[in-house]
Design goal:
By secondary structure, the chain is mainly alpha-helical. The chain has one domain: Up-down Bundle (Fumarate Reductase Cytochrome B subunit). A three-stranded antiparallel sheet has the order 1-2-3. The longest helix has about 35 residues.
């Protein structure tokens, strides 16, 4: 069960809640927030250190894949706005939302908006593909990791190909992250709310 209890954001001189006091509600539960920032830290670490610190790179990749596995489960059984059913929309609704964004009249959503939901799915898929390709590469070139037995008999050319695939996927994921950050900044400005702060505190403004 999710908590959307309103919290006071201000009081008058007598200590009575002001009209703005009931505008903030809890949206993001602790698991969603921990997942979000841990995934960002894990991907950033793996991307920055690359092969220079292979052990760190590999364990950051394991962390990322573990986080995604937990998030997939939480997307089914978690709190209201954590569930995929709350923010996964069809192509028509996503296109309509983006059209409204271009007209500067996009609706304010308490959870993820349709475009944000689509980006979440793309990021989950891209990060998963990056992590799995890295795991396969680790098995093919270093003969280590969970896929070592499967990859050990592969030709050397497979390792070279996997390295290219892993690099392309990592760069594609980084591009998605940049687009995601741009979307967060745009939505924060257009709706006059701090979405980064919301992912830290868990609270957002009620729907308009």
């Amino acid at each position: 069960m999710t908590s959307q209890t309103a919290i006071p954001t201000g009081t008058d001189s007598l200590g009575t809640a002001t009209p703005e006091a009931s505008t903030q509600v809890r949206v993001w539960d602790p698991l969603v927030r921990i997942f979000h920032w841990s995934l960002a830290a894990g991907f950033a670490t793996a991307f920055i250190v690359e092969d220079d610190l292979l052990g760190v790179h590999v364990w950051a990749g394991y962390l990322v894949l573990t986080l995604i596995a937990v998030r997939l489960v939480w997307g089914v059984i978690g709190t209201r706005h954590a569930r995929f059913s709350d923010f996964v929309r069809g192509p028509a609704e996503i296109r309509a939302y983006l059209a409204d964004v271009l007209r500067f009249r996009a609706k304010h959503y308490l959870g993820h908006n349709p475009a944000g939901g689509a980006m979440i799915l793309l990021l989950l898929l891209a990060v998963t593909a990056t992590g799995l390709s890295g795991m396969a590469l680790y098995g093919a070139q270093e003969f280590a990791g969970p896929l070592a037995g499967l990859m050990s008999g592969m030709p050397e050319s497979w390792g070279e190909g996997l390295e290219e695939v892993h690099e392309v996927l990592a760069n594609f994921t980084l591009a998605l992250v940049i687009v995601h950050l741009a979307g967060v900044a745009f939505s924060s400005l257009s709706h006059r709310e701090n979405l980064i702060g919301a992912m830290i505190t868990g609270f957002k403004r009620r729907e308009d």
